[in-house]
Write a structure and sequence with these properties.
Structural class: alpha+beta
Strand content: 15-25%
CATH topology of the largest domain: Palm domain of DNA polymerase
Oligomer: single chain
CATH superfamily of the largest domain: B family DNA polymerase, palm domain
Helix content: 25-40%
Number of strands: 32
Radius of gyration: 30 Å
Length: about 750
């Protein structure tokens, strides 16, 4: 049998630990494998006697060593908690441990080199509809499995003290559970809320999804369901077995809540969308319009009151509304390809679906699977404190101006290619062979990171050949995460010198590339991390290809001559601007960084400027885009600006005046300062959510839901329009004040 692993956990049976892998087979059956496995970690051989003085334990001599070349022994426990306890004891005695922090089930997957799919051989029996294997043979394999996904959504009394109805939707099933006396279309009705909740958990068993999802499903829907279950004495069991499920709610804006539901994954689709797409807000309506092109079937003013009214007077309409929310979630999941993306990521890294961000965990999973073959063990993660900051990327001070043609050349996957070229790796670090610009050294005997990167690039090419864009994108994200993971003190491979070696090479070669291009007679006006901006005297596209070929030959020869290694860095022609603006820093003569705009094949391309920043209004976006297009296409700007201000004052742009800003903490935590968005939020009786939408009026800052005063147009002219105009008009020898006063000159375009 072949299948995809949905959840990896463990059970202790008769004092012995068994790794439990739940999944879905290619034959569409749910399965569970139970394999006996002894938990273990390592200590240095020289520390063995000291460790034995205060505890008895089973150990084994092994032919493995630390990154520093010291021999280690393998220390066993009976159950996973033994490792935790013994590790703390040893650390208290200043005895260093190795790989003592790896979760038990993950340890098993790493040792068996299993990614996201397994082939299982052995006897099985069915238990509650699940195919259960005991101590089977398992190995990694390639497998294509269609996971069963269930979407859930609840509607409640306005203070969430009572659940009215619950929609449950799968590909071939849709139903609303509702407290009602009468029969209703698409619904099962129940006399009490308790009866409804009990039916929900029976339904989950019957439908047997691999993934339960919804919109803000953990922090709201499941949180409320769990609370009501506790009140009504209903077991809260979302998983495939009868153990109660656990919610881990994170109040921090920077951490995601999660659910432990043994045998299944619970995924908040809103969290996945936030990671992968920038939207104006993360309401279900907004995401649905973006991905699906449709939204909810009912729009509310005061949702809490109106839901309550529907429950009392029009339950059928409430059912349609409730059902639509769950259907939209499944449609977003399908259109966005996010499930496919994270399944592909799981097949490459071995991580479970509920760990979408985990760049450190991804690196760990891949690296540790290969480390043993090299004869090494990795250190236990320590909470390192950076003694000094990581050296950042090089960003050249730009040369401001309006340009006719600009060529942008990019180093392709710069950090991974540097690691591959110069053999940057934890096990090669500190050995003679290659010297980085920061003084760190690496041996020329191939390390693991170059090997891992090369393999992933081959996988990416295979995806590309098969036109699998989702797979290709999954590999791209993974490759680009490696430097960030290794530069984090939370990573077991963290090493400040090693991290600075990567950025040091990047800074060195981006400066070198700019210098080589200047030697060819071209002006470089800007370079940023991995890009070089070159003034094109004639045809930008033609120059781009010429420079790509010439610079890569120079680069290859240089690396071979200076380091005697094979170069894997590659400079490619990225884009050509026919018109380009590099602005000045506001109020200064020197050029800005990471802020520019240009015209590519007649279309506007903007980076870092107000039109693409979320903290500026839609008014600023419209004004900047319209003004830039006029400048780039050679049209006069005087009448445009005069009329824009006239229309603004006439109220023609009122819908564009809304600011949107997120809260970084709860409202009552803002004590030292009170920013505008906090003032606006505090004017609402029951503010909920993280984002505040507000406007400036004659009454001051007001939330968009409760505008009393007239719009303060002078604020928008001075704070949103004028700064943008000044940035651009300076290059045309024009002044904003002249534009709005009617004293328009004949200068400029």
């Amino acid at each position: 049998m072949k299948g995809f692993i949905v959840d990896a956990t463990y059970r202790v049976i008769g004092g012995r630990a068994y790794v439990a892998l739940f999944g879905r087979s290619e034959d569409h059956e749910a399965f569970l494998t139970l394999n006996y496995f002894k938990p273990y970690f390592f200590i240095k051989e020289k520390d063995l006697k000291s460790a034995q003085e205060f505890d008895e334990f089973e150990f084994e001599e092994v032919k493995l060593k630390t990154f520093d070349g010291e021999k280690v022994v393998k220390v066993y426990g009976d159950i996973p908690s033994d490792v935790v306890k013994f590790r703390k004891e040893l650390e208290g005695e200043k005895i260093k441990t190795y790989e003592a922090d790896i979760k038990f089930a993950q340890r098993f997957l790493i040792d068996n080199k299993i990614q996201g799919a397994i082939e299982v051989k052995g006897d099985y029996e069915y238990q509650e509809g699940i195919k259960v294997f005991r101590d089977p043979e398992i190995q990694n394999c390639e497998s294509k499995v269609k996971l069963k996904v269930l979407s859930i959504d609840i509607e409640t009394e306005k203070n969430a003290k009572e659940i009215y109805c619950i929609s449950v939707v799968m590909e071939d099933y849709k139903k609303v559970l509702i407290v009602a006396e009468e029969s209703l279309k698409f619904a099962e009705h129940f006399k009490t809320e308790k009866d409804m909740l009990e039916r929900l958990f029976v339904l989950l068993k019957e439908l047997d999804p691999d993934v339960i999802t919804g919109w803000n499903v953990i922090d709201f829907d499941l949180k409320v369901i769990q609370r009501r279950c506790k009140k009504l004495e209903v077991p809260f069991v979302l998983g495939r077995v009868n153990n109660p499920s656990r919610l881990i709610i994170k109040e921090s804006f920077f951490e995601s809540s999660k659910v432990i539901a043994e045998g299944r994954q619970v995924i908040d689709l809103m969290a996945w969308v936030k990671i992968n797409l920038k939207l104006s807000d993360y309401k279900l309506e907004t995401a649905a319009q973006h991905y699906v092109g449709e939204g909810k079937n009912v729009q509310f003013g005061d949702k809490g009151d109106e839901i309550q009214k529907l429950f009392l007077k029009d339950k059928q309409k409430l059912i349609y509304y409730n059902l639509k929310d769950s259907e939209l979630v499944l449609n977003i999941l399908k259109k966005s390809n996010l499930l496919e993306l994270y399944v592909k990521r799981s097949l490459v890294t071995g991580l479970m679906l509920d760990n979408p961000r985990g760049s450190i965990a991804a690196l760990d999973s891949i690296y540790l699977k290969k480390l043993r073959d090299k004869g090494y063990v990795a250190p236990t993660i320590e909470h390192n404190v950076k003694e000094e900051p990581i050296t950042g990327a090089y960003v050249m001070e730009s040369k401001p101006g309006l340009y006719e043609g600009i060529v942008v050349l990019d180093f392709k996957s710069l950090y991974p290619s540097i690691m591959r070229t110069f053999n940057i790796d934890p096990i090669t670090f500190g050995k003679k062979g290659i010297k980085a610009p920061n003084g760190a050294t690496f041996s020329k005997e191939e390390g693991l990171m170059p090997e891992i990167i090369e393999h992933l690039l081959e996988v990416r090419e295979e995806y590309k050949k098969n036109k699998d864009e989702t797979g290709r994108y999954a590999i791209k994200i993974l490759l680009n995460s490696f430097y960030g993971a290794m530069a984090s003190p939370m990573c077991r491979y963290f090493n400040l010198e090693l991290a600075n070696a990567i950025t040091g090479f990047a800074r060195f070669f981006i400066k070198k590339m700019a210098s080589w291009i200047r030697e060819e007679g071209y002006e470089v006006i800007y370079s940023d991390t991995d890009s070089v901006f070159v003034v094109a005297k004639d045809d930008p596209k033609k120059l781009g290809k010429e420079l790509e070929n010439k610079m890569n030959k120079i680069l290859e020869d240089y690396v071979k001559d200076e380091y005697n290694v094979v170069n894997h860095m590659y400079l490619e022609f990225d884009k050509a601007y026919t018109k380009f603006l590099m602005p000045r820093l506001r109020g200064e003569e020197k050029g800005a960084k990471k802020r520019y705009a240009g015209l590519i094949d007649g279309k506007l391309d903007i980076t870092g400027m107000e039109a693409v920043r979320g903290d500026w209004t839609p008014l600023a976006k419209k004004f900047q885009e319209d003004l830039l297009m006029r400048v780039f296409t050679g049209r006069k700007v005087e009448d445009f600006i005069f009329n824009f201000i006239k229309d603004l004052k006439a109220g023609k742009f009122d819908e564009l005046l809304v600011y949107k800003k997120g809260l970084q903490k709860s409202l009552d935590e803002y004590t030292k300062t009170t920013p505008p968005h906090v003032k606006a939020a505090r004017k609402l009786k029951n503010f909920k959510g993280h984002y505040v939408r507000y406007v400036y009026t004659t009454e001051g800052v007001e939330p968009i839901e409760q505008v009393k005063g007239k719009f303060d147009y002078e604020h928008y002219i001075n704070k949103q329009v004028k700064p943008i105009a000044d940035t651009i008009l300076a290059f045309l020898n024009l002044k904003f004040e002249d534009m709005i006063s009617g004293q328009r000159s004949l200068k400029g375009f």
